[in-house]
Amino acid sequence: MEIQALAESVRETLATHDASGLRTLLEDVHPADLALVLAELEPRDMWRALSALPPDERAETFGYLPTEQQVDLARTLTRKQLADIVFHMSADERADLFNRLSQEQQEALLPGLAQAERDDIRRLAGYEEGTAGAIMTSDYATLAPQLTAREAIEWLRREAPDKETIYQSYVIDADRRLLGAVSLRDLILAPSARRVEELMVREVIFARVEDEQEDVAGMISKYDLLALPIINGGEKLVGIVTYDDAMDVVEQEATEDFHKAASVDHLETSVRDAGFRLLYRKRVFWLVLLVFGNLFSGAGIAYFEDTIAAYVALVFFLPLLVGSSGNAGSQAATLMVRALATGDVELRDWGRMLGRELLVAGALGLTMAIAISGVGVIRGGSEIAAVVAITMVTVVIIGSLIGMSLPFVLNRFRFDPATASAPLVATIADAVGVLVYFGVASAVLQLPPS
Amino acid sequence: MEIQALAESVRETLATHDASGLRTLLEDVHPADLALVLAELEPRDMWRALSALPPDERAETFGYLPTEQQVDLARTLTRKQLADIVFHMSADERADLFNRLSQEQQEALLPGLAQAERDDIRRLAGYEEGTAGAIMTSDYATLAPQLTAREAIEWLRREAPDKETIYQSYVIDADRRLLGAVSLRDLILAPSARRVEELMVREVIFARVEDEQEDVAGMISKYDLLALPIINGGEKLVGIVTYDDAMDVVEQEATEDFHKAASVDHLETSVRDAGFRLLYRKRVFWLVLLVFGNLFSGAGIAYFEDTIAAYVALVFFLPLLVGSSGNAGSQAATLMVRALATGDVELRDWGRMLGRELLVAGALGLTMAIAISGVGVIRGGSEIAAVVAITMVTVVIIGSLIGMSLPFVLNRFRFDPATASAPLVATIADAVGVLVYFGVASAVLQLPPS
């Protein structure tokens, strides 16, 4: 059923207070779709719809809601209702929710849970946001090395209901140190008496709790993993990150870099639901900073005020020249920022990239100079046309080199390369463009600067 | 082992021509890592290293190489060597490679393969790039509905070596119509005599061969699927797309949108390996187009030449004002482009977004106007300061509204919203900015336009 139609039906059924009708309606709806529909309802109706689901599905649907809405809904629930739903949530989603609750809510929630869940929440909720620890789950399957394939499958069968995945199991010793990994596929294919230690892969790819979520997602993507085991400082296995969470991270990190590319700070929430104040806050810093950055262009213009007064026609080409420099620079910066983010390019590639960029930018500048020189002749005569053409080639090269180098420089000094946003590059390129333009004009038109 | 160190060892071992040493060295290396190392070698050495691997791993490593390098290497192989490696590749990677080979190579390859592989290649290679058909694999597991859980597991066990995944199987009738889906987890948990038709999920989420790869990846991400079944026009199951391929699509589409955001056309290859001509071609179109776009700003300036001649001080604030308009517009455009791409925002949200944008942009413009008005007073007196402040608020609002609306307009007329790049928005905002600035100046300073 289409989401829109489903939303309509849910609303209608809620209005009739027909509990069994509601159950029937929601039976075959995927939790991800249902969460989309519920997200549009008031907390009261949201809870009525959730109550019509069996506990597992209720918790799963709840887990698909945006975290802010989980918190809003949690606020309207009794301690018992909240504990019930939290009990059935997956370990990583539970910890995420817990971290967003007020201290009061946290304190109200914990006594309602069993000791095991309490410890688990405390453990997972302690990791810094953006790290492997913060996105991992503790619902993973482990095996002892001496088990036979048949015993291992039997064990996984019993464990399955509580585990995020049983397709990948981790073999650990008594100290929870990671000895190997074995897939369910290998267990099923193996002779039933073969031991896990003979079947397991010993060179296990793993990450550490403090590793960045971006790198963890990158490893899962690179090695096509179903899950990546996470190790703590004591070399003990403490969790796994699954491919579906990695996929969310890839999307989330791309969005963050995207926003940064336009000098918007990291938005923690969806653009759709972001409020006025949040959007203002995330955009104002760079805008104001860049206003002052643009003063350099203004200062450059002021320095050449006499040149301009003598040749007002020069101003005609100003937006075009500084704009072109900024555009070429934005292209170069964006290509590098993304290539650095995906690992396509590394710091040490800078030299080689620079040489190529010089060639490409030179060719681009030349093309643009030719394209505009006709207009130059018509508007200002051949001398002005020459000034415009020389300036165009020069500023496109300079803009491009600034654009492609800035991400490397930022990366080198451990800043986020994505800070090399199109607006920042354009602002720098503008200032340089003004100086080059009027500098070239003064030289060619043989005017002394003021 | 670190990639750098591994590359070193591989080079050294190749130099000594020690075949068994090479085998030992490569034994435990992940194919994804090995491919990174091989990508730096000459085709001859690449092939020598690949030859040291068992056929399956050789094909897997080969599959991890960038497609261009696969093609380059294929060119140096004998017909038999190529057929051998192609035979062991996964169905989707095989079809991708086939599509990039020259017609000659294709004709040389096909006779070397068995009928089944030939048909499979022809079938998969026929789908348009960017569609579900082009990224799906035909190596999926199917089950008959009457099988018991025990029989189904036994069947999957026999099929496993040739299948991309056995964790998700698809239940089909005699006409290959999709009846349901069942996970290995459910098969293992079920009583062994229970029939597949009783265990399967009947409401299977699926896509069609012609669906866009972006949407397919979005479904896999949204529903946390391991694989998504793909149906053809005759309603028959013809393939699956797995989560790892979906992850690659998510990254690839994000990169494409990223590049578009800086008005760079879609690069089919990595930035690192892109040549001079390719980069030039992908960047030149928009740059030249925007040069002519910027002529509108120039024309605006020319129209107000007398105003400028009378108040040369006005030019000081020009870059700052038009830059601010473009920066705010870029922010607004990028927020919308990304939100439309991830499905966070839809076409029908435009009205609501517009109202909020008006408020946010007004507040931003006011903040920036206040920030700059001190400089206005110092440089040009209170009248000029007033002109600058009024212009700032106006152009930031206009720039933002253009920036946020353009992606919706493009989307509405079935263009890619990502075409609303920062440079395009900045160019439009520039032209509007010039008109507003000198228009306000003429009014406030009571100068007649030329």
How is this structure best described in words?
- The first copy, chain A, has 450 residues and is mostly helical.
- Helix content of chain A is 67%, strand content 7%.
- Chain A contains 21 helices and six strands.
- In chain A, helix 1 packs antiparallel against helix 2, helix 3 packs across helix 5 and helix 15 packs across helix 16.
- At the A-B interface, helix 12, helix 13, helix 15, helix 16 and helix 17 of A face helix 12, helix 13, helix 15, helix 16 and helix 17 of B.
Features:
6 strands, three-stranded mixed β-sheet, 21 helices, mainly alpha, homodimer, 450 residues, elongated
Question: Judging from the principal axes of the Cα atoms, what is the shape of chain A?
Answer: elongated
Query: Mind telling me the C-alpha Rg of chain A?
Result: 30 Å
Biggest beta sheet attributes of chain A: 3 strands, mixed
With strands numbered from the N-terminus, the spatial order across the biggest sheet of chain A is 1-2-3
The share of residues in helices of chain A is 55-70%
Number of helices of chain A: 21
What is the helix/strand order of chain A? HHHHHHHHHHHEHEEHHEHEEHHHHHH
Low-confidence sequence ranges of chain A:
none
Tally of strands of chain A: 6
Mean pLDDT of chain A: 91
Largest interface: A-B, 109 and 108 residues
Fraction in beta strands of chain A? 5-15%
